[in-house]
Design brief:
3 helices; single chain
Length: about 100
């Protein structure tokens, strides 16, 4: 009986740290992914508003091509790739506001 209790204690002692580590990894990965997608959505909405305000055909065309070029693959989408594509668009199309008088 003592061997059984010792075995159960060892198994529980191993299972608890593994379980905590696993759930911590799942939680931290989920937070990172959500932050990444929040940045992407924020960027796209800012560019959409800016493009709508400018009413420039070239801005609209660039925005449409950026949306079509985003590396979206359904549930297999890598957010970092999407963020990288958004950053490339941002670098290529620096939108400056005209000074207010």
């Amino acid at each position: 009986m003592a061997k059984l209790i010792k075995l159960i204690s060892v198994l529980v002692g191993i299972a608890i740290p593994i379980g905590i580590t696993y759930w911590w990894a799942v939680f931290s990965t989920t937070v990172d992914i959500n932050m990444c997608y929040s940045q992407v959505i924020s960027f796209i909405s800012e560019v959409a508003v800016s493009t709508a305000k400018s009413k420039s055909e070239s801005d609209v065309a660039a925005f449409k091509s950026m949306l079509k070029a985003l590396p979206l693959h359904g549930y297999e989408t890598n957010c970092n790739e999407v963020l990288e594509a958004a950053d490339k668009f941002k670098e290529a199309h620096v939108q400056t506001e005209s000074p207010k008088i």
